[in-house]
């Protein structure tokens, strides 16, 4: 069997001040055909899964370009069309094929393209024809647009937030697409529009139990796969919103009924899905009054995993003003400050300006006398079996607060982000991490308590504050009950 695979993706924040260009891809995850390494990225997890299956079953695997840009603003038309056409040319050159398996994100928006993945799939379908199964793996923060469903045979999304299951979902996708190619199943996809924009971490109830229950349904009674597309709340597109996808073995009626039932259950939990958010002072007061530590304060409002610059200083200014001791905060993206620290060297005491630079939501820079505690070349952190680059990094001390500065814009994912740059996270009373929920899997085991803090960063937790312009249908929370269940 001849199989083609490629990956293309980013998560587009329509309101981010950071542009997504061709260089955003080539400088991040960039693996031209034949150069893919043994390790994988979330949106390229299908490659190792396909390699293993090809070796076991004697398939011919043709690997195309695999690339991903860190979340930021809309992708330039030039960048998207260049990458799209490159992959499509590789696809056409690989013909004839028995199946196609792609690693995508699902929330990529470019100039002139509301759904890049939908456009890519439609063009891929035109090349391979109606009889070659196309499967694709998606981030659960995707926009499950009709054009995606129309042009794929099987879509499988991550179930976990934080996204710790990308490798498992990739193996599931490969198995289902192969079964379709071999005629063992006839996949039919059914979708229900939940008409809501939500944040739904699976690290807490009620989502934990809901996802566990959904997973138990798969592989029984003709139900091949179930995915929850949570949507990406900061992508300005008319198709934004949570949806439920059910893939059955040739039973559209069953799939649609189940998608609607699960979708209405998902919708009914909409007020309970997001964790409670605290003001900065509420969170700091609570942590300082508590025994032991570390108290982990998550700052989703400046999460670079959602396209934020990751240099907002509001919470740091508040901590400095209060004279807080025994705390650490990170990461702050400031390549210039990192370069200065590397130039001054470990142990130096200098006047430094850092943070508050990338955009009007970044706050004001911090100007302070700091001690450079550590400098590290090519720093990294871990996440769900992956190595995530942070670039050259430095740790500075401002009063009683240790601050991690990085040159590669990534969110906090694991305590080794701190420990690898001279900070002992277990010795801190307070750890502030710039992340929405990907930090949770690795930080929860060491945390005395986790508190979510709403700041003035560019990713407001109240979605009604986002200046959408393209939404045309009623969605929660803009409408209190668009499905009329209350």
Blueprint of the fold:
Elements: E1 2-9, H1 22-26, E2 29-31, H2 46-57, E3 60-68, H3 77-94, E4 99-103, H4 116-128, E5 134-138, H5 146-151, E6 154-157, H6 166-181, E7 187-193, H7 207-217, E8 223-229, E9 243-249, H8 252-268, E10 277-278, H9 280-289, E11 295-298, H10 314-321, E12 325-333, H11 335-344, E13 349-354, E14 366-383, E15 386-398, E16 400-406, H12 416-419, E17 430-433, H13 440-443, E18 449-453
Parallel strand pairs: 1-3, 1-4, 4-5, 5-6, 10-18, 11-17, 11-18, 12-16, 12-17
Antiparallel strand pairs: 2-3, 7-9, 8-9, 13-14, 14-15, 15-16
GO biological process, one term: proteolysis
Protein name: Microcystinase C
Keywords: Hydrolase, Metal-binding, Metalloprotease, Protease
Describe it.
Involved in peptidolytic degradation of cyclic heptapeptide hepatotoxin microcystin (MC). One of its GO terms (molecular function) is metallopeptidase activity. Belongs to the peptidase M81 family. Its cofactor is Zn(2+). It comes from Marinimicrococcus flavescens. With 486 residues, the chain is α/β, with parallel strands linked by helices. It has two domains: 2-268, Rossmann fold, CATH 3.40.50; 277-460, no CATH class. The protein contains 13 helices and 18 strands. It has helices spanning 22-26, 46-57, 77-94, 116-128, 146-151, 166-181, 207-217, 252-268, 280-289, 314-321, 335-344, 416-419, 440-443, and strands at residues 2-9, 29-31, 60-68, 99-103, 134-138, 154-157, 187-193, 223-229, 243-249, 277-278, 295-298, 325-333, 349-354, 366-383, 386-398, 400-406, 430-433, 449-453. The strands form three sheets. A nine-stranded mixed β-sheet has the order 10-18-11-17-12-16-15-14-13. A hairpin with a 1-residue loop joins strand 15 and strand 16. The N and C termini lie far apart (51 Å).
